[in-house]
Amino acid sequence: MDAGIAFETERLRLRQWREADDAPFAALNADAAVMRYFPAPLTRAESDAMADRCRSLIAAEGWGFWVAERKADGAFLGFVGLHKPSAALPFAPCVEIGWRLARHAWGSGYATEAARGALAYGFGRLGLDEIVSFTTLANARSRAVMERLGMREDAVGFEHPAVPPCHPLRPHCLYRLPRAAWQASGA
Ligand SMILES: CC(C)(COP(=O)(O)OP(=O)(O)OC[C@H]1O[C@@H](n2cnc3c(N)ncnc32)[C@H](O)[C@@H]1OP(=O)(O)O)[C@@H](O)C(=O)NCCC(=O)NCCS
């Protein structure tokens, strides 16, 4: 497969970031609907810095939060992929699966499709034993993706250390997918 392309799914290409992704990524990060479950939308500088971090981590590790691009027209949809969280999370060390798509790309199954490919990459190529995902309690769309992937919610959630105490977004749920459960699902 091409240097920058990690893998393809039926409708998507998951790849390394390019400079041309910065503008649509900034638009997505400035959209209040997309950023509803984050403390605040991102400024252009914050968005560019996040794209740079994603790009550097993929360059260093060979994997990360990849750009999800639609094969049919090359459109930038957002990111989906794997990441080692840097925050001091109570269940660290771990590898999380995460996603953030532009509003126009919701409701088409793209996040779940890309995430299935990312799970196969994580369990298959990286040989991970477990992949986790987490989000603030009210983020129903993100939780629905986790459930479609066969992830199971831990009985006890956690307070995200990067969100200020008493902030309504601080309580999080944690979903886990052990390698054996992924294999048993026949994915
Ligand atoms: C979380 C997020 C990626 C989920 O996106 P999504 O579009 O709801 O999820 P999917 O891509 O899996 O699409 C599923 C929907 O597409 C529909 N769909 C349409 N065509 C489909 C197809 N061909 N195949 C599968 N599903 C399809 C499904 O029925 C489902 O619809 P529903 O939500 O009405 O039940 C998106 O809401 C987002 O980017 N949110 C902002 C960022 C964020 O909160 N990230 C998570 C932080 S932890």
List the quaternary state of the chains: single chain
Bound molecules: coenzyme A
Q: What is the number of strand segments? A: 9
Mean pLDDT: 96
CATH class value: Alpha Beta
The ordered string of helix (H) and strand (E) elements is EEHHEEEHEHEEEH
Distance between the termini: 21 Å
Radius of gyration over C-alpha positions, nearest whole angstrom: 16 Å
CATH topology: Aminopeptidase
Estimated structural class: alpha+beta
Q: Level of helix content?
A: 25-40%
Please count the helical segments: 5
Strand content: 25-35%
Task: Count the domains.
Answer: 1
For the largest beta sheet, what order do the strands appear in spatially? 1-2-3-4-5
Largest sheet: 5 strands, antiparallel
The CATH homologous superfamily is named: Gcn5-related N-acetyltransferase (GNAT)
CATH architecture: 3-Layer(aba) Sandwich
Unreliable stretches covering 5 or more consecutive residues? none
General shape: globular
Protein name: GNAT family N-acetyltransferase
Domain N-acetyltransferase: 12-180
Keywords: Transferase
GO molecular function: acyltransferase activity, transferring groups other than amino-acyl groups
